């Protein structure tokens, strides 16, 4: 009994170190961390910590230094501690006495209602199932074994990013396999059962982030919990990804964080430092998976088009501020590309071939079917269609346009990607069926966010005046 307990304790300490490093990065990016609620700080910290830690492991490989747990953990934690100390000293001597900007806050704590407990109970049951399913079964599913899991084991055994002995999409970014190999170092052995517990954690953080964003958009607790449960329990795709070692769930998390923070900024409801924080998640997007940079590009394009269409008084300045998340995107994209070029890794070019119109049309049929198929995402996408209809003119006169443009642009991008995929006519249907659910998972949490905006208008979420009163009290 002692050995399993110690191994589990080592896993908790390893995950706790990721949270600690991420919180340090969070505190450096935002002027006043307490302007974010505890659940937000928790949700953001793990993503930032995973990004910083794995990029540091990339640096170690670049310097040809062998991985070891002290070398992986101590330098970034020490640097983060020094940076926080310097920030605190500078803050005391400079602008530390300034009054924090007022940002929308939730209503004071109120007793939980019956429906609150129902939604929480459903979510708890889901994660109890997903956690046991993840840790009791061995690693399974093709990409988990042949790509992400294979790389993680090679990185652990070789004590570095040795890609000479494998050919498992070596051009893919490596946030997920590096994070898994870090957990192996924490455990002192390869243990897929415990390492797979990482993925229910990613899902829980994604839902916590979705709930927090909905609350910031003035939904009541019951409304926010209802929309969160509606997203989590609709269809099978999200549930399956809670217990398989794929990079798509982390990518969906980074995408939701980047879109959500940028949307709060567009609506004027963002706490201070939200744009630099969003830049950190653009870094994670680019470093997590091959589809990350295109997703980031559609986010930025949708934000720029929304600003141009709505024409706020400070249009030029706000468009220029989009350069902050662009810097984050570059920080996640170029280091890996440069490393791959120096190591002469063959980069993928399978999505830049000739355009095949018949595949584009066939993919459109598959896409429409997937959006209305209850097995995929339940009734979430049909609910989004209804929400867009009922939004009416407000969709074109508010920053909600940003969410709609992002979703529509990515649905079109999926079709274009299938239109240029170099597959045979016989293989194409199976290729689409094997990938479409994952491509939709990347953006579906944002669809839930837009549904929440419509739900807010149906059930009397807290109004602006109430929020201002609460802010003045705090």
- Morphology: globular
- Residue-averaged pLDDT: 89
Number of helices: 21
Q: How many domain modules?
A: 1
**N-to-C terminal Cα separation, in Å?**
48 Å
Poorly predicted residue ranges:
95-104, 461-474
Count of distinct strands: 0
Query: Which sheet architecture does the biggest sheet show?
Result: none
Backbone structural class: mainly alpha
Radius of gyration: 22 Å
Report on the architecture of this protein:
This protein is an all-alpha fold and 474 residues long. It has one domain (2-87, 115-459). Helices cover 73% and strands 0% of the residues. It has 21 helices and no strands. Helix 1 (2-29) packs across helix 2 (38-62), helix 1 packs across helix 6 (175-187) and helix 2 packs across helix 8.
Helix/strand layout:
Blueprint: H1 2-29, H2 38-62, H3 69-93, H4 114-136, H5 142-158, H6 175-187, H7 192-195, H8 198-216, H9 221-233, H10 237-241, H11 248-267, H12 274-288, H13 292-310, H14 315-321, H15 323-342, H16 357-372, H17 374-377, H18 380-391, H19 400-419, H20 428-456, H21 464-473
Helix pairs in contact: 1-2, 1-3, 1-6, 2-6, 2-8, 2-12, 4-8, 4-9, 5-6, 8-9, 8-11, 8-20, 9-20, 11-12, 11-13, 11-20, 12-13, 12-15, 13-19, 16-19, 16-20, 18-20, 19-20
List its traits.
474 residues, disordered C terminus, single chain, globular, mainly alpha
Summarize the structure.
The chain is an all-alpha fold. Helix content is about 75%, strand content about 0%. The chain has one domain.
């Amino acid at each position: 009994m002692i050995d399993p307990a110690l191994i589990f304790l080592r896993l908790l300490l390893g995950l706790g170190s990721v949270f600690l490093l991420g919180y340090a990065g969070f505190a450096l990016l935002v002027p006043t961390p307490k302007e974010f609620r505890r659940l937000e700080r928790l949700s953001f910290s793990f993503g930032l910590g995973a990004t910083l830690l794995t990029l540091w492991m990339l640096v170690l490989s670049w310097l040809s230094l062998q991985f070891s747990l002290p070398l992986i953990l101590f330098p970034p934690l020490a640097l983060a501690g020094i940076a926080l100390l310097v920030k605190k000293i500078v803050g005391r001597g400079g602008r530390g006495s300034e009054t924090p900007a007022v940002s929308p806050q939730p209503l004071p704590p109120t007793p939980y209602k019956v429906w609150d407990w129902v939604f929480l109970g459903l979510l708890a049951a889901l994660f109890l199932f997903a956690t046991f399913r993840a840790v009791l079964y061995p690693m399974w599913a093709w990409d988990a074994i042949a790509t992400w899991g294979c790389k993680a084991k090679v990185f652990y055994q070789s004590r570095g990013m040795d890609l000479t002995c494998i050919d498992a999409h070596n051009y893919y970014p490596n946030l997920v396999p590096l994070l898994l190999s870090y957990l192996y170092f924490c455990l002192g052995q390869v243990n897929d059962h415990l390492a797979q517990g990482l993925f229910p954690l990613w899902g829980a953080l994604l839902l916590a982030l979705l709930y927090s964003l909905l609350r910031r958009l003035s939904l009541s607790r019951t409304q926010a919990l209802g929309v969160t449960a509606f997203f989590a329990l609709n269809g099978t795709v999200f549930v399956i990804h809670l217990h398989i070692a794929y990079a798509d769930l982390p990518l969906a998390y980074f995408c939701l964080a980047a879109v959500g923070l940028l949307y709060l900024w567009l609506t004027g409801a963002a706490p201070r430092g939200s744009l630099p924080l969003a830049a950190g998640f653009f870094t994670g997007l680019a470093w997590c998976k091959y589809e990350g940079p295109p997703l980031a590009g559609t986010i930025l394009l949708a934000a720029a088009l929304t600003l141009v269409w709505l024409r706020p008084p400070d249009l030029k300045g706000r468009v220029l501020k989009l350069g902050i998340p662009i810097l984050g995107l570059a920080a996640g994209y170029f280091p890996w590309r440069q490393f791959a070029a120096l190591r002469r890794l063959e980069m993928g070019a399978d999505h830049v071939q000739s355009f095949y119109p018949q595949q584009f049309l066939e993919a459109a049929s598959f896409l429409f079917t997937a959006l209305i198929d209850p097995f995929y995402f339940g009734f979430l996408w049909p609910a989004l269609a209804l929400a867009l209809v009922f939004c009416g003119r407000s969709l074109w006169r508010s920053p909600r346009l940003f969410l709609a443009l992002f979703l529509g642009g990515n649905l079109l991008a999926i079709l274009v990607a299938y239109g240029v995929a170099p597959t045979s006519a016989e293989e194409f249907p199976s290729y689409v069926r094997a990938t479409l659910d994952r491509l939709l998972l990347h953006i579906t949490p944002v669809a839930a966010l837009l549904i929440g905006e419509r739900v807010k208008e149906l059930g009397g979420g807290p109004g602006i005046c109430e929020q201002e009163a609460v802010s003045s009290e705090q």
